[in-house]
Amino acid sequence: MNEATTAIAPLRAAALVGAFDGSQLDGTVIAVNDQSGDVLAHDGALRDVLRVLAAHAASKLIPTIVYCLRSGARALQAPGGPTVSVPAGIGDRTPPTVAIDVLLEYCLRSPTPILLVLDWADHLLPADQLPTANGDTARIIEQLADVAANPAFRRGGHVVAVLSRGGSLGPQLTQLPGFSVLNLGLPGHAERRTAIEQMLNSPRRPLVLAPGFDAAAAARATGALRLYDISVMREHTSPEHPLTAEGVRERAQAVFERALQGIARVDTTRVVIGRDLVGLPQLRVLLEDHALDPEAPLRVGFYGPAGTGKSIGARAVATSLDAPLILPETLKEQWVGASERNAVRFLATLESLKPAVTLIDDQNDALTADRERSSHGDPNGISGSLTGLFLDRFGDPTGMAGVHLVIASNYARRIDPAMKSRIKCVPFLPPGLDDLAAQMEAAARSRSWDLEPGAALQALLEHPRRLTSRDAVTVLAEARTRALRARHPVIAGSDVVESLTDYNPGIDAAVERQTLEALEATTFTSHLPWMAARRLGEASTQPPTELHEFVHADGSLDRDRITERLNELEAQRAR
C-alpha cells in the first residue's frame, strides 16, 4: 500500500484524474482537501471537484454514487455504461456509519466498477472531533481504513474518494496507509491561462479583454483569484466594458486582504522605473537580467544605509513583475510555537497567492537573522527556528515557485550566512549628485510640485553634500515650504540652496559601516552601482570619492580593505 502523499499538478484536474487512475491500480483511497471551493479546467469545461471525478469515471463507463450527510445518496450514471441505483436501506435518517457500510457492501457486490464519493467529508469528520475521534467519527475513519486495506476494492476496479469542501482533513485520516492526498489550492498559471482561453472562446458568454490585455497577461494578473472569480468577472464584461488589468487588481486586492488578515498586508503603491524611480542602475540591470528568464523566482537582498531606496526598490520590483507586494506584519510572538505557526500560515498564504513579491525588512529580521548571533538574545530559539523555516522554503532555487523574495536590511552582516548564500546581494548606496538631483525632480513630479528646471542639480553642485535618497526628498519638502513662505510660484534654486545649507544629517560611522557591509555582501561586481551604470551607458561610472580606497582601478572591490575597515569600526564600537 502507498503511504499518504500530497499531489499537486500544474492543472489541478490532472492531479485528480491521475489519482483516480492510480486508485484503480493499487486500491488507494483518494482524499481531497478542496478549501478554495473552486472550479477546475477539465476537458474544455469548468467543473467542480466532484464533476471532474464523475466525468472521468463516465469516460471509462464507470457510474458514480455520491453520499453526503445533508442530502443523502444519489447516483450519477455513465452514458453507455452499466446502470446503478441507490441501494435500499439508506434513508433521510440513516446514520452515516450505517449508510457508508451499505454503500461499501453494494460496491463489493457489484460486478462492474463504481466510483463512490463521500462528499462534504468535513461534515462527516468534524475537525474538532478528529484529535479525540470517538463514536461515529472513529467508526468512519475505521471504515475508510478498511477500504484502503481491502484488496477486493482493487480487484473490482472500484474507486473511493473523500472530498473535504471547507476544512482540511486531519492527519488522523490522511496519514493512514493507502491514502492519496490531494491539496487543491488556487489554480496555477498554466491552468488560469487554459481557463481564460476557454472563456474567451465561449459561445454562450465570452470573456472580453481590453486591448493589449491578452490571455497571457490576464493569466499573470489573476494569480490571487479562483477560476470561479474570473468566471464571475466574465459575466460583467462586454465590448463596451472589457476586463482590464486595473479591474483584476481591484478584485485581487479584496482577495488578498481577506486571505492575509492579521498576518500581512498588501502594499498597493505602484513604482514605475523612469517615472517614479530614477537612478539605481543596479536595480535596472537586475530586472533586465530577470526578464531573460521570467519564470525563475527572484531571490535578492537589498543592503545599504537607511534611505537609499531599498523599500521603493522592492515596490519597483513588484510593479515590474505585475505582482502584489506582500509585507508580513509582526510574526514573532513571545510564546514558543506561536511564531512558527504564524510563519507557516504566512508562507502557505503567500504560495496560494502567487505570483507575488514579499519584502522582509528589518522589522521582521527574525525571519532571516543570523542564527548564531540571534541565539545570544533569543533564549527560546524563536528567531533561529523562523530563519530555518524560511531557509527550508526559499533555500531551494525551485522552492516557492512564483513567489519572489526581497530581503532589505541596513546591516548585511545580520543576515544569516546560509540565507545570504542563496540570494543575489545587491548594494544600495548613497547616490551621487546627478542621481540626487534626478531623484528630487522625480519626487517633485510625483507630488505635482513645480520645481525650477535644473535648480536641484545647480544647488547640489554649489553646495555638495553626501545625502541619501530619503535626505533628498526631505530637503525638497523643506525647499517647498520656503517657496510657499516666500510666495514663489515655483521651488527656486535659492529655496533648495537654503534648505541644503540648513540641513545637517551627517554621515556618521553607522552609515559608513552599513555602506561597507553592503559592499562586502555584494554577490556580483556587475551589480555595483558604477559598474551597472557602465553597462547601461550612463554617466555615473565612477565610485563615490569616499569609497575610492575600497575600489580597485577596474571598478571591482578591494574586499580585504573593506573587511579591515569593518573590523576597525567593530572595535571602535566595542570600546
UniProtKB/TrEMBL annotation:
SUPFAM superfamilies in UniProt: P-loop containing nucleoside triphosphate hydrolases
Domain ATPase AAA-type core: residue ranges: 302-424
Species annotation: Sinomonas atrocyanea
GO MF entries: ATP binding; ATP hydrolysis activity
InterPro entries: 26S_Proteasome_ATPase, ATPase_AAA_core, P-loop_NTPase
Protein name: ATPase AAA-type core domain-containing protein
Keywords linked to the UniProt accession: ATP-binding, Nucleotide-binding
Classification via Gene3D superfamilies: P-loop containing nucleotide triphosphate hydrolases
